[in-house]
Amino acid sequence: MKVRLCAAALVLSLAACTTVPAPPAPPAVEPAAMLAAVRAAAGDGDGELAVQPLRDPQVEDLRQAAQRFQAEGRHAEAAQALDRALALAPEDPALLQERAEAALLLHRFDQAEALARRAFELGARVGPLCRRHWATVREVRRAQGDAAAADEAHARLAACRVAPPERF
Predict the structure, then answer these.
(1) CA distance from start to end of the chain
(2) Which of 41, 96, 98, 162 qualifies as a cystine partner to 135, CB 3.0-4.6 A?
(3) What are 113-155's pLDDT values in tens digits?
(4) Does domain 28-42+55-158 have CATH number 1.20.59.10?
């Protein structure tokens, strides 16, 4: 009886050693690198059409505070400042994009994508800001391992470049 129990215990312990390998982990995501890629995609906007709205001074103060917080690594506080600014100007595409970028830094990728898409819908759909919208979507989709959607976002990003009208 003891021999059978020992044999059964040996078989079970050997069976426990043979496990099915786990699926590969998604690539490591570095939000700061994602943000750098988004901002690099915007380019300098030189020689193209770019729409720049007038800003409310209170909103501008909150935006600048958010930039300072972000530079100091205080990402949650930056997001809060942008949320307060959005309460004053909820349909400002640039502000929505900045909040999307803050969401990236907080690892809130679904929120970042939703904000970037909303900003695109409300914005001029051309220029550096447009490229930032689609670069955000691209980076989120890459982080989620969705290469097809990332490629689609990259194609949309390229379509944002529009030359300004000729002046006579």
Answers:
(1) 101
(2) 41
(3) 999 999 999 998 999 999 999 999 999 999 999 999 999 999 9
(4) no
In the chain, the amino acid numbered 78 is A
What gap in Å lies between CA 66 and CA 86, rounded to an integer?
Answer: 12
How many Å apart are CA 98 and CA 105, to the nearest integer?
11
Listed by start position, the domains of the chain span: 28-42+55-158
Distance CA 79, CA 17 (A): 47
What lies within 8 Å, CB to CB, of 129 at 6+ separation is 42, 50, 51, 93, 94, 97, 119, 123
Q: What is the pTM of this model?
A: 0.79
Residue 157 burial (CB count, 10 A): 21
- pLDDT higher than threshold 90 for residue 110: yes
Report long-range pairs for 118-121 (Cβ below 8 Å, ≥24 apart).
119/93, 119/94, 120/93
Tell me the residue type at 11. Answer: V
How much of the chain exceeds pLDDT 70, in percent?
Answer: 77
